[in-house]
Every structure is written in C-alpha cells, then in structure tokens.
Amino acid sequence: MISSQRQHLILSRLRTRGAVRITALSKELGVSAMTIRRDIADLADKGLLKRVHGGAVTTSTLLSEPLFSVKSQMDIGLKDAIAQEAIKYVAPGDVIAIGGGTTAYVFAQHLLESQQSSGITILTNSIPVAELVQALESKDVEVIVTGGVTTRSNSLVGPIADKVVASLRVNTVFLGTHSVSIPRGFLMPNSLEAATDMAMMDIADRTIIFDRSHQVELHIIVAFRTLRPGGHGHYR
C-alpha cells in the first residue's frame, strides 16, 4: 500500500472514530510505527488532522471539503496519469467543458501542453483553469467562464453558472468527483457544485469522470448522477 492510500485510510478512520492510535494503525496496515508517524506528520502539515501523543485527532476541516491548495498536493502522480490518458479524448477544434477540482486542473495543464489543444474552446467553472488559459496568452484557445458563487475548491457554482452552462453545447465534459458509489452514483460534498456538474453533463455529447478510486467519502455528500452501463465514460 502506497503512502497516499495509507493516508486516505487514516483520514477515513478519523472521520469514523474521531481519533486514531499509531500502534493500532501500524498493526492494521502492516507497516512500522515510524511509517505511520510520517504519514500523520504529512497529513498534519496539510492541516487535515492534529497530532497528539501516540496518534492523531480530527479537526473541523476534516469534515468539510479541503481547500484547492491542500488537495493539489495529493496523488500528484495519479492525477498526471489520468490526465495523460484523458487528453486522448480531445481533438483539435473541439468545444469542451472542464469542471472544478485539482484532477481537472492537472488535465487542463496537460491538455494545453499538447497538440490536441489547437483551436479548442473551453467552458469552465474552475477559476484555476480559467487563470491557466489566460496565462497561456494563446489566441488558439478560447475560454468561457461560467460565473457564479465560489466554493472552497475555487469552483463557480449556483444559478448563474447553471444558466450560462445551459445556453451552450460541448463535445465532451471532463469532471472530477469526490467519490463513486455503484448504487448512489457520483458523490459531492456540495449540492450547488453537484447541480452545476449535472448541468455540464446535460449539455455534453460525452462525459469523462475523473475518479481516483481510493478517495474516501465525506460525511456530507450529494449523489448527483447514477452509473449506467454504456453511458458516461468513467476513469479510474
């Protein structure tokens, strides 16, 4: 089990129990106490838990959506791999939509560095993605920003965003998700964000979902689209 998987499991135990002990985690995961201490120290540095003698306790931020800056430091290699695969589904001249979240942002980075970005139009509700395109200063890529209410993940959501999205049509939408459940669908901690993502799916000919499969569900989640065989694309 790699460090990111251990850390997600540690956070899962914290959400359930409120506190964890190094000795118990070491035994459960089959790794040394020193390894668990390093994982806890890393999570503490990211503000996701509080270190105490012999273990860790939960923080208020653990029960809400982490900031974009915190999530951007997680699973970097996995996000790169997902992005490199996903850009194969973009052709020069396409009109696409890119949702919020750090995996979608990494996808945008890889896309803008590729030949597939030639002549594309990007609809996005992600402030970081919009800023990324603007910084590129390329006349070959057009960006449309939805407007709306800002979330902790630097996404724009709500009625304004949904209205802008509904007025357009795209070839493919690329969306991140917080977790996936076969019976419940794609899960989000923010109902407004879920609604805007659904609006993007409704205007797209094809949907690609970025799923880092070991993500842990939050306490407050919204199921916003069920999984259907042969339907929307789903990336792990």
From TrEMBL:
Q: Residues in domain HTH deoR-type?
A: 3-58
Per its UniProt record, what SUPFAM superfamilies does this chain match?
Answer: NagB/RpiA/CoA transferase-like, Winged helix' DNA-binding domain
Disulfide bond recorded as keyword: no
A molecular function (GO) term: DNA-binding transcription factor activity
Which PROSITE patterns does the entry mention? Answer: HTH_DEOR_1, HTH_DEOR_2
| Superkingdom of this protein's organism | Bacteria
- Keywords from the UniProt entry: DNA-binding, Transcription, Transcription regulation
Pfam assignment, any one: DeoRC
Protein name, per record = Transcriptional regulator, DeoR family
Species source reads: Bifidobacterium pseudocatenulatum DSM 20438 = JCM 1200 = LMG 10505
Q: Write the lineage as a comma-separated list.
A: Bacteria, Bacillati, Actinomycetota, Actinomycetes, Bifidobacteriales
